[in-house]
Design brief:
alpha/beta, Four Helix Bundle (Hemerythrin (Met), subunit A), seven-stranded mixed beta sheet, 16 strands, globular, binds 5-S-methyl-1-O-phosphono-5-thio-D-ribulose
């Protein structure tokens, strides 16, 4: 996976790995229209906060390119309606709004339709290029937290497949290996969509890591039995206060880690940090019942059963040992350390 790009721009098309087909087959899909990109984000063809931020940005560049608007104002209207559609696809990860905002701002700063289209495309490509550099920088900061020979637990997929390449949490594990450390990884399967077994296990095995898969229900056992020395996860949104929104089940991993004195780290780029929102502003995406009532195409729950299927949960700051970013590792109190990474002086 390390060499493959999860999402990229190719001459007026957005090309992605179709993650709904993994691990069975590695297939690429191409889109030439922002509505197709929106469907892909909604349908988890591309997923993971940084990757959907990039996909949204590239999708908005497609909308600008395809618009037939002849005036600056008409093109701004078309860009705004495409931005709303793309933004409406998934509510929790803040990277989507961030990527769309950057592209829309770039277009707005240009004076005529031709230069607006150019600016939108250039900014979207810049966001995609930056992603890999940012992940590598994050990896460097995080690698120093991982000891040689340690076993690291991760949850969901925060790897190359959740970004353009290299990954956030898995980027830290990759960087530790580049330092010559020998680490084992324990990956949770991450029901109900199984990003852990379908994506993390696939990605790490593909790249030659020593990885073992556990059911989500074995997090406590693995920690209590001394199997795990560190936990590193990604994030979909981190608030100024250090509250971490990440894939459902992350909170359980953090609570268990605290119970067993295992450091619990979050790897997230600055594009995932939301200094504006409060806990109550964040919408937790509720997904369809079908993700829970069956697995592998066959039904495992009784017909007519009620289902609650939140895609994300919130881990409070007191359970987080550190937040690894491309600018360094933030430690509590996060209300001071996180704004400082942006050069914002806390008031
Ligand atoms: O619903 P998904 O698959 O888009 O989930 C988001 C994630 O991939 C995870 O929450 C991940 O751990 C953080 S994004 C690097």
């Amino acid at each position: 996976m390390e060499g493959l790009l999860t999402v990229r721009w190719d001459d007026g098309r957005v090309v992605m790995i179709d993650q709904t087909r993994l691990p069975g087959s590695l297939e690429f899909v191409e889109y030439s229209d922002h509505l197709q990109v929106a469907d892909a984000i909604r349908g988890l063809v591309v997923r993971g906060a940084p990757a959907i931020g990039v996909a949204g940005a590239l999708g908005l560049a497609l909308a600008a390119r395809n618009s037939t608007a002849a005036t600056r104002e008409a093109l701004l209207d078309d860009i705004e309606s495409a931005r709303r559609i793309l933004h409406g696809t998934r509510p929790t990860a803040v990277n989507l709004a961030w990527g769309l905002g950057r592209v829309a701002d770039a277009a707005r700063a240009a004076q005529d339709p031709a230069s607006m289209r150019e600016a939108a495309e250039a900014e979207a490509k810049r966001i995609a290029d930056e992603d890999v550099r940012i992940n590598r920088a994050m990896g460097r900061h995080g690698a120093s937290l991982i000891g040689d020979g340690e076993t690291v637990m991760t949850h969901c997929n925060a790897g190359a497949l959740a970004t353009v390449a290299y990954g956030t949490a898995l980027g830290v594990i990759r960087a530790a290996r580049e330092d010559g450390k020998k680490n084992r990884v324990v990956a949770t399967e991450t029901r109900p969509v199984q990003q852990g077994s379908r994506l993390t296990a696939f990605e790490l095995q593909h790249d030659g890591f020593d990885v073992s898969l556990i059911p989500d229900t074995a997090v406590g056992y693995s920690m209590a039995s001394g199997m795990v020395q560190k936990a590193v996860v990604g994030a979909d949104r981190v608030l100024r206060t250090g509250h971490v929104f990440n894939k459902i089940g992350t909170y359980q991993v953090a609570v268990m880690a605290a119970r067993h004195n295992i450091p619990f780290y979050v790897a997230a780029p600055l594009s995932t940090i939301d200094l504006e929102s409060g806990v109550d502003d964040v919408v937790i995406e509720m997904r369809g019942a079908g993700e829970v009532t069956g697995t592998g195409g066959s039904r495992t729950a009784p017909e007519g059963i009620g289902v609650v299927n939140p895609a994300f949960d919130m881990t409070p700051p007191e359970l987080v040992s550190g937040i690894i970013t491309e600018r360094g590792v933030a430690r509590a109190p996060y209300e001071e350390s996180l704004p400082a990474l942006f050069g914002v002086i806390p008031s």
